[in-house]
Amino acid sequence: MLSVDKDIRDLRAKVQRFNDTLEDSTVCSGPRRTSSSLWYNTCDERQFRKDLQQTKCNHEHRTSSPVNFKSFIQSSMHTDASEKAVHSSQTEVPLVVKGPERLLGEIAYQLDKRILSYVFQGQKRLYGFTLLNIPAKIIEVSTHPLTGKVDEGYQLHLTQRYADLMDWLNQFGYKTALHAPFTEFVVNNYGILKERPGEYSTQEMDYNNPDFLRNVIINTAPRKLQKDLFLLLNCLCNMTEKDRKPLLLF
Question: What are phi and psi of 143, to 5 degrees?
């Protein structure tokens, strides 16, 4: 829980510093085009979360996700009109999601599941558990359902596992305040694999090959999402090294 609050404070401080710098440079040298590679520096966290939590849409969506994909992309980046025009064809969610595109959602989903399984190691079922409600679930599972008595030792144990994991993932650029809702966003828009690959098949080997998955991101994902998708994949690869399990668990 402390880690989430710290991430949010750090992010807001970075955004404020960037905005101050941008204002100073604009006064001195006039408007300047901003590179799309400045995802973390230019992302306004409050607008990011507001768009992801939006519950009403102006258009019908392919999935049940409340997020307007195009408005999310455009509002979370500071780009000029010419850059928006260049990338407009890349910021649309396809009406029909194909296999490679579903792999984008699968990568996000697998990291989500890996984090939850690590924090709640003793839980057999994780239905209803999400990255966004981990603090609430820690309280829930450490409280006796009949007596309401809190197992403070178990609650402290889970809280420490969660804080330690977030600190570790933070080394790779993972920010809970941004990437927890981003993960949910990607899964909602791209879905996950409909069928697991056959055991020992070429497809299974490809899906557990980080280089193959990186190429899927490059060839399939909108460019403005690629940096954060690479980050999620990198976190997943590092968790795989940590727990000695396959990249994708089915």
Answer: -110, 130
Q: Give the pLDDT confidence of 66-105 residue by residue, as tens digits.
A: 444 445 544 444 443 433 433 333 344 444 556 789 999 9
The tokens of 77 are what? 């980046």
pTM: 0.63
180: DSSP letter: H
The one-letter amino acid at 32: R
Output the CA torsion sign for 71, 73, 75, 79.
negative
Question: What six digits make up the tokens of 110?
Answer: 């697998």
Q: CA 79: distance to chain centroid?
A: 22
Burial letters 5-28, b for 16+ CB under 10 A, else e: ebbbeebeeebeebeeeeeeeeee
| Sequence-distant (≥ 6) Cβ neighbours of residue 88 within 8 angstroms | none
Q: What tokens appear for 89 in the block?
A: 């064809």
Q: How many CA atoms lie within 13 A of 171 on its CB side?
A: 8
> What's the rounded Cα separation, in Å, for the pair 20 and 7?
20
pLDDT in tens, 45-75: 555 555 555 533 443 343 333 444 445 544 4
Compute the distance between CA of residue 222 and CA of residue 208 in angstroms, rounded to an integer.
22
Residues linked to residue 143 through DSSP beta bridges, in sequence order:
150
Cα dihedral sign for 60, 63, 65, 70?
negative
CA distance 246 to 249: 6
How many other C-beta atoms are found inside a 10 Å radius of the C-beta of residue 186?
25
DSSP state for residue 34 in the 8-state scheme: P
Do the beta carbons of residue 210 and residue 38 sit within 8 Å?
no
Rounded-to-integer distance, Cα 154 and Cα 172, Å: 28
